[in-house]
Each structure stands twice: as structure tokens, then as C-alpha cells.
Amino acid sequence: MEIIKDLKNSKRTYKKRNTKNSSSKKRLSPKRSSKKRSSSKRTITESSPAEVPLKDRPLGEKIVIGLCICILTVFPFIFIVVTLSVVIYVGVSEKIAEVEHHEGKRESNEELYGKYLYLDEIDEYSYRIVSEDEDPEKRLEWDEEFCGYYDDRSDGYVWYDVERKKWKYWFNGISTDYKDYGWMVYEPEGWRIQKDDVDWIKLPEKYDRSMLWYIKQE
Predict the structure, then answer these.
(1) Residue 79 belongs to what H/E stretch?
(2) What pLDDT, on a 0 to 100 scale, did the predictor assign at position 218?
(3) Which is nearest to 150 in space by CA: 136, 131, 166, 171?
(4) Which secondary structure element, helix H or strand E, spans residue 13, and what is its range?
(5) pLDDT-based confidence at 171, cuts 50/70/90?
(6) Quick check: helix, strand or coil at residue 151?
(7) 139 - beta bridge partners?
(8) C-alpha to C-alpha distance for 129 and 215, rounded to whole angstroms
(9) Is the confidence at residue 98, as pLDDT, over 50?
(10) What are the strands of the beta sheet with 190-194, ordered from one edge?
(11) What are the b/e assignments for 47-64, b being 16+ CB within 10 Å?
(12) What gap in Å lies between CA 57 and CA 109, rounded to an integer?
């Protein structure tokens, strides 16, 4: 009987041990699974966005990246083109202004009077147009670049403005004070000089008139 009791007691203790082991295993299994999930999350979050290929990124991200690339590549090119255009435009404008600031640049007097303009003296300051055979007092040569007949004695130019039917004069030392303007005309009241686009003023008294001359218009 004692042997049977011992066997029963041993069976009971074995069952208890097995029950404890199984419950402990069940309690441990969730913790292990949580560790696995946390490790997988860590690997996902630790990956850098730069490592993700462009094709796998969302559409919005692709559009933003494309716009950034476009701005960085196209805008500098546009800036260079615009800058070069401005430089060329300024250069051309200055050249045109330099060529055309002497009024009537587009008109050539060669068709009217030929390459040379012959003048004969009427009095100390006035002349009339004559032919080469009339033993002229002055012979002025047409300057294509300046678009005027040049007189070396007075260091001046003269040309005929067909539209306004007036002879106009440019005397270095006087006209040059007015930069882009300075053309002069002789009228019954005396000399007038162009001050700006619209204003013609009486020639200031400070200028020496001893070398000034004009062509008498009939």
C-alpha cells in the first residue's frame, strides 16, 4: 500500500511540474513575438529616405523632386540667356545711339550735291553753293561716317535736312558740349542750338562766333 501511495504522489508531482512548464512557455511566447516585431519595425524606420529608389516613391514626392531638378537646371540656363540678351541689347542700343545721335544720319546729301560741296564767300560769315568751275572759296568733302560735309578750317560739319529744308551745322568745341545733341541752325535772329529732343535755344553768348559760318538759303 505504501508503494501505491508513492506512485500516486509521484504522478501528481509530475503533472504539476508539467503544468507549470506549459504555462510558463505560454507566457514567454508573446514576449518573443513582440521582440521580433520590434526588431522588424526598427529595420524599417532606420532605413534612410535617400536609399529608397525614385520609382518606389509616392507620386507627390516624384513631382516635387522633378520640379527641383527642373529649377536647378532650367533656371540657370534662362538666367544666362536673359543676361546675354540684355548685354547684347544694351550694346546694340548704344551703337545705334552713337550712329544716329547726329540727326539725319539716314539721309545722304551726296545725291543732291555730290561727294564735294563747293562754296563761295558772300561776306565774312556767309557762303553760297557754286560749282567746281567757279573757283570756290571752300571745298567740303562728304564724310559718310559722320554724315556731313567737313570743313577743316572751322573743324565743323554741315548737312542739308531735306525734311525741314534747313542747313544744319556741327562745330566741334561748341556742339560737343551738348553730347547727343548740339546741331545748330542759322536764322535771321542769329544762331540757335539743339538742347534736347524738342528744345532749340539761342546760342549762349559765352561761345566764340568768329569761326562760325553758314550757307545762305535762297
Answers:
(1) helix 59-100
(2) 73
(3) 171
(4) helix 2-46
(5) very high
(6) strand
(7) 118
(8) 8
(9) no
(10) 200-202, 190-194, 184-187, 166-171, 156-161, 148-151, 138-143, 116-121, 126-129, 214-215
(11) eeeeeeeeeeeeeeeeee
(12) 75
Cell 542759322 found at: 186
CA angle 46, 51, 55 (to 5 degrees): 130
Q: Are the CB atoms for 134 and 121 separated by under 8 Å?
A: no
Give, in order, the Cα–Cα distances in Å from 178 to each of 3, 6, 207, 210: 140, 135, 13, 20
Give the list of residues 6+ apart from residue 94 with CB closer than 8 angstroms, or none. none
Question: Residue 163 is placed in which grid cell?
Answer: 525734311
Give the pLDDT band (50/70/90) at residue 211.
Answer: very high
pLDDT above 80: residue 187:
yes
Measured in degrees and rounded to the nearest 5, phi and psi for residue 75 equal -60, -45
Predicted pLDDT of residue 44 = 45
> Is the entire prediction scored with pTM above 0.85?
no
